[in-house]
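Following up on my earlier message about S-adenosylmethionine. Here are the inputs again, as you asked, copied directly from the submission form:
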Amino acid sequence: MQIGERLLKITSFVNQNAKVADIGTDHAKIPIYLTQKNIISYAIASDKNENPLQFAKENIRRFGVKKNIDIRLGDGLKSLKKGEVDTIIIAGMGGGLITKILSDAPNILKEISQLILQPMSEGNILRSWLMENKFLIEDEVLVKEDGKIYEIISAVHGNMKKLNDAELMFGNIILQNKNELLKERINSEIFKEKRKIIGMEKSQKAMNAKEYNFAKNKLKSLEELLW
Ligand SMILES: C[S@@+](CC[C@H](N)C(=O)[O-])C[C@H]1O[C@@H](n2cnc3c(N)ncnc32)[C@H](O)[C@@H]1O
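Thanks, got it. Here's what our run produced:
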């Protein structure tokens, strides 16, 4: 199974012999790849929709890993029973949806040792939920594929220090590591904020509103993150 940079990075966080549930598995690429590489010997490939599961089923058969991967139909973590897996992967969904899926299943999460999450948006909401629900972000990275930058978070049970706005948005560990992809992300946020400010500056009323000051302060904070 060929997988791209984003999925490859996600799989690099999985521990040897982990029991993995891939939620929103779509074509089941992650569990198939992990099985083929002998990283895991059991996975649950779960999705809310029938259609993607048909592709998952076909791929699992084609790559000869039927005995290693269970296919489940269900919303979020509802397809799992307590203690079946120790690692949950949720990738390619909005941070808000990932947060909802996690909040809906406290009993399943109790038994889990690692969460590997790749939000497509609203990483701040997801980090805030992890912080408030006693998960510790042990590692997080950025990866670029087809010109788009993605963030991947690995979390375990534990207490995390209180994250500030910038840390919620970009990730504390990602900010500390200061790589070029982070610079690209910050510059893209700076560009968006500047465009917003230029738009507001066309109207005196908009410039008098508190949103204008908020945007100016946000721009300043973003520029201070650059090195
Ligand atoms: C964009 S695909 C991501 C596929 C794969 N995880 C990846 O990262 O490439 C999102 C998948 O999540 C599934 N999905 C959306 N909401 C879900 C939910 N609440 N529970 C389980 N699966 C869900 C969709 O059916 C779809 O197959």
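One observation from looking it over: Residues 23-26, 47-49, 52, 75-76, 91-93, 101 surround S-adenosylmethionine (CB under 6 Å). Hope that helps, and feel free to reply on this thread.
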